[in-house]
Amino acid sequence: MAKKKKRHTYTGILSKHRKGFGFVACDDIEDDVFIAAGSMHGAMNGDEVEIDLIPEYLWRDSPEAIITKVLHRNTTEVVGTFDKSKKFGFVIPESKKQKEDIFIRKKDFSGAKKGDKVVVQITRYPDQHNSAEGRISEIISRAGQPGGDIKAIARTYDMRETFPSRANAEAKAMKRQGVRQEDIQNRKDLRGKHIFTIDGADSKDFDDAVSLDVLPNGNYMLGVHIADVSHYVKEDGPLDKEALKRGTSVYLLNQVIPMLPKALSNDICSLNPYEDRLTLSVDMELTPEGTMVNHEIYESVIRSAARFVYDDVSDLLEDGKWQLGRKYEPFQDDLLAMHKLAVKLEEKRRERGSIDFDLDESEIRLNDKGIPVSVEIAQRRSANKMIEEFMLLANETVAEHFYWMEVPFLYRVHEKPETEKLEKLKIFLRSFGIMLRGNRSSIHPRAISSILEQVKGKTCENVVSSVTLRSMQKAYYSTSCEGHFGLALKYYCHFTSPIRRYPDLMIHRIIKEVLHHGVDGKLIKHFAKAAAEAADISSAAERKAIEAEREVEKMKKAEYMSYHIGEVFDGIISGVTGFGLYVQLENTVEGLVRIDSLYDDYYDYDAEQYLLKGRRNGKVYKLGDTVRIFVDNVNTDRGEIDFLLADFSPYQGQD
């Protein structure tokens, strides 16, 4: 029998690196295929390409190939910074995956000036001999305009603050419609109850409110009341189609790319104080120990009695500062009882093994010119934790209720860690003298939770928490109820933020359909398809939003540190690689100490022990070590910060 020839030609999507090389993801090859910078054949990031594998003996760490043909161009426009000479110009791409500048002829400047953030429409794609050409189709912001850098990143991810005219028109019509008497008739009227919101000081869209009653039997009746956005966003209408496309609101420091127009998100759907609002409510009867004994899900109408702020409520709960204002006095008993219940709920959550990654998150403050003036650790205080516990419980309750009803639904799924990642985590933890207990194939979240408890308060806490978090799978949306490993829950969904997340809006739509018409075959068939589509689109939109938010954060942290070049800081080694050490400062800023700056010896990288070790002097730099650094260099566009260890710094003596 003739030997079957090995296949060499494949197709896939190209993902480029700013240094020029890239990788192609192919369905038929397990590992991504490496493409050298000189083997691109004019392909751009995101293009569908045909590749030929080079001989296997020439591969390094993974399969390698050359691009032989561009099958489909997926990039039609590029966002970047405009630069020009007298006769021509070019656009320097904002995306880190697009290395090559776009050539612009003078007739295609479209009024753009040097330094403007622009969108360029591709008119000629690059080949092996010529760069791409284009014409400027949009000026995002003028040079030096506050917030222009953030707007450019948002536009790079195709995130737009403005809405299509039809969606805007529908939103304005819904705002004018308001809350009508006919909308209230068949709802439970809760307008006389002590219901209020607790949010951040700068929040403008309030989609959740809470209430608490102490029952005659000593139990609590916790009410979680969520904006009934589905009443105003009609299925398959212009608003709904645009919301599904966006999938989520995106928060880029002081700029918001909302999922819904402000006429809804900040107005008629927002649970503003002293205004009638339509809601979906979940009443949960709980024992004083936090055990659920009963629940009810129903349509309601509320009138929020107050709009409270996290920091103020935390001051009241933590320090007893009731003198903050008269508006808190009527709610003192409610808030104290809520806090007491939340503590019990947190205790129960920890007992079942829920993982609490209490990582330091950054709070970056910008001035009116968009310049970062401070980078600090964001406070996660008593009031924040209290509302978080109530929302977790509501999400779990709704998920379990509809799971047993056997209707199509959208669940929030978090799978257990992959075996290979767990093995690497075990090796990493051993370098700190920590043992991860449990079988790799059936690890319980309690094992991870106990690790985080062991390092609480230690200098290595943030490093261990970060590496452990990276070992976890990413959560996603699914129509299958596969459980939430991190929360140690069998049933979980997102129900509490329909203004900001499309899955919550979809869930509300399903709930209302069941409440009005019960469960039938027509409902199941319809929502099975709609929920599956929403799950895929929303999961992808969430990943894109997280990427954009991180890019903006890195850029502004780098800009902040650019004003501190030559200054000294203490930090902790948060990462060790073959090319250097990552050091995290107390304010969460992270920078790189390049290995070639450690000029006193040749340092070897030990991947298993997460350390660098000098060959001659035996000096060791390992994860969790405290070091003193100087800020050496910053690249704001790339969000990169270079540090020097104090022992190797030309800035010595300046601290």
Keywords for this structure?
13 helices, alpha+beta, exonuclease, OB fold (Dihydrolipoamide Acetyltransferase, E2P), hydrolase, 5-stranded mixed beta barrel, RNase_II/R, 655 residues, disordered N terminus, EC 3.1.13.1
Folded structure, characterized:
Strand 27 (603-606) and strand 28 form a beta hairpin. The protein has 655 residues and is α+β, with helices and mostly antiparallel strands. It has 13 helices and 31 strands. Helix 2 (165-177) packs parallel to helix 5 (262-268), helix 7 (332-351) crosses helix 8 and helix 12 (502-517) packs antiparallel against helix 13. 28% of the residues lie in helices and 28% in strands. It has a five-stranded mixed beta barrel with strand order 1-2-3-5-4. It has a five-stranded mixed β-barrel with strand order 6-7-8-10-9. It has five domains: 9-72, Beta Barrel (OB fold (Dihydrolipoamide Acetyltransferase, E2P)), CATH 2.40.50; 77-145, OB fold (Dihydrolipoamide Acetyltransferase, E2P); 165-414 and 479-553, no CATH class; 419-472, no CATH class; 564-648, OB fold (Dihydrolipoamide Acetyltransferase, E2P) (Beta Barrel), CATH 2.40.50.140. This is Ribonuclease R. It comes from Lentihominibacter faecis. It is found in: Cytoplasm. Belongs to the RNR ribonuclease family. RNase R subfamily. Its main location: cytoplasm.
